[in-house]
Amino acid sequence: MKTNLIIGVLAMAAVVVASNILVQHLLGDWLTWGALTYPIAFLVTDTMNRLYGARTARKVVIAGFVVGVACSFVGSQIQGEFGPLVTLRVALGSGLAFLSAQLLDVAVFDRMRARAWWQAPLGSTLLGSTVDTVIFFSLAFSATFNGLEPGNVPGWAQEGVPLLGQGPVAPLWVSLAVADWGVKLALAALALIPFRLITASFARAEKV
Fold it and tell me: Long-range contacts: 107-116, Cβ < 8 Å, 24+?
């Protein structure tokens, strides 16, 4: 079990580190490259949950949270064009979003464990992804939380623009959140393929 836990921790750490690096690079008008790697964290959590149980999955989540905190600290020490790469609000939003969403994912998956193989990973990931998006983008960019860091208000994210370039006018961060959420939902469905392959392969190995 220790070896399996280490593998899960390393996989989660790799996802968190990669996402923290890639989030600095834009992908079109509404996304960053990190949007494509971060949802893999749910695949790691769900796979560990299916194979080794909720307790092991939670340990992997906590490890990922610690790695994320370390990444935020490093980012806060690096100065970009508009200040530190990671502000206090971004660090708080990132950490709370990850921990809340991943632990919720573990709990929901565990509740749905006995259902059809695809229902637990899909249901838990969709719910966790939604919570993750709401917490992160609200805390990091919404005007509601400007008091958290008065000296570093993300005014650029609060400017009104057409939603996703076409809809009604809303703060820019809302478009970023909607685009990010859409990618998470799409990848949640696609992740069912590797989830099924990994868990089925493990089941066959257990029978040998």
Answer: 107/54, 109/45, 109/46, 109/49, 109/50, 109/54, 109/57, 110/49, 110/54, 113/49, 113/50
Nearest of 65, 60, 24 to residue 43 by alpha carbon: 60
CA neighbours within 13 Å on the CB side: how many for 152? 14
**Of 102, 37, 108, which Cα lies nearest the Cα of 65?**
102
> What is the pTM for the complete model shown?
0.94
DSSP 154: -
For residue range 132-160, list pLDDT tens digits in order. 999 999 999 999 999 999 988 999 999 99
Question: How does pLDDT run across 71-115, given as a tens digit for each residue?
Answer: 999 998 887 766 788 999 999 999 999 999 999 999 999 999 999
Phi-psi region of 29 (alpha: psi -120 to 50; beta: other; left: phi over 0): alpha
